[in-house]
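Deliverable D2.4 — example input (structure tokens):
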């Protein structure tokens, strides 16, 4: 079949136009990041000397979050310590009276404080971003959505639980058990349905765009469009929820596990687990912590990630403060203060 020269020219022109558009947006994104936001402050000049003692004296077990190159934790005086995997560490001066933390997008650190407000580090300036975008051409909706997200994050109050990919999407549970969503590319009806009717939630979890809420009475809230709706609605007595790659786990009061989702590597083979007080799902495997400090694992084990049979005296970090999870771990299982430095 003979292809005309005009058709070939049309194809070439189209490919050139697409390449130019992609290149322009990439340059804009790079310029925004280069401006200031990815230039994270250097960690303080504290190295391995004293790190172990510092961790022992200051780590309180309320929360710990790990990123690609570092981890952060809340200290006993409610500040945040950032520890680089090279051994350097610092106290972040902008974060005080912190109750929960997580790692966000672009290597940022996110926290909520005692009054429930949201604090990112480093903080982006939407005014400066607007100036840069207005000076640019052919800007897609992505950068403008980021600005909208930054502005909405500043309005967060009374939050008790959250996850955030700042300056991307995030979700918050408030003291009145209502929900706020930031930056989700869902339909407006879906967002409004969740924010207006989910008013009894203590924790949220997300897996592949499927958002579920743990309610005060231990049941699960989800949209009827969820592929696992019929399974979620049968769950009861749940005290915490966890998500992996494409699967979600519910920890029950009696220490057993409910699970649903894709199970390609056996990561959901948790039906026989008992006396569990915390779960840590990864994309292809799942780890559970028993009340006696031993550990159990299921799923893909090509690198020995499930070889935890000899682990002992492992302690949990609290994912939910003042909730059914804390009451169950501290009262039902009778953990003692002297047994668990991390539960103080």
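Example output (designed residues):
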């Amino acid at each position: 079949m003979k292809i005309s020269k005009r058709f070939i020219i049309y194809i070439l022109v189209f490919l050139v136009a697409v390449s130019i558009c992609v290149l322009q947006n990439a340059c804009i994104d790079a310029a925004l990041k280069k401006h200031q936001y990815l230039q994270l402050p250097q960690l303080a000049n504290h190295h391995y000397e004293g790190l172990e003692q510092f961790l022992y004296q200051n780590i309180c077990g309320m929360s710990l979050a790990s990123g690609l190159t570092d981890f952060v934790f809340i200290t006993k005086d409610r500040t945040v310590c950032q520890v680089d995997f090279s051994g350097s560490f610092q106290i972040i001066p902008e974060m005080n009276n912190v109750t929960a933390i997580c790692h966000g997008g672009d290597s940022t650190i996110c926290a909520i404080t005692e009054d429930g407000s949201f604090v990112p580090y480093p903080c982006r300036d939407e005014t400066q971003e607007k100036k840069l975008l207005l000076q640019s051409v052919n800007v897609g909706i992505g950068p403008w959505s980021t600005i909208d997200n930054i502005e909405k994050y500043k309005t967060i109050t009374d939050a008790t639980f959250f996850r955030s990919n700042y300056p991307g999407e995030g979700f918050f549970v408030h003291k009145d058990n209502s929900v706020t969503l930031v930056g989700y590319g869902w339909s407006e009806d879906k967002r409004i349905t969740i924010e207006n009717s989910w008013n009894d939630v203590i924790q949220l979890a997300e897996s592949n765009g499927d958002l579920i809420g743990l309610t005060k009475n231990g049941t699960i809230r989800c949209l009827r469009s969820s592929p696992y709706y019929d399974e979620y609605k049968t769950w009861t007595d749940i005290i915490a929820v966890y998500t992996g790659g494409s699967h979600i786990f519910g920890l029950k009061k009696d220490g057993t596990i409910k699970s649903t989702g894709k199970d390609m590597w056996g990561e959901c083979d948790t039906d026989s687990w008992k006396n569990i007080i915390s779960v840590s799902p990864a994309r292809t495997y799942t780890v559970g912590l028993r009340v006696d400090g031993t550990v159990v694992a299921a799923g893909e084990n090509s690198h020995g990630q499930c070889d935890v049979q000899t682990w002992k005296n492992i302690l949990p970090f609290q994912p939910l403060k003042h909730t059914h999870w804390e009451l169950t771990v501290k009262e039902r299982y009778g953990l003692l203060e002297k047994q668990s430095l991390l539960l103080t």
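The longest helix spans residues 5-37.
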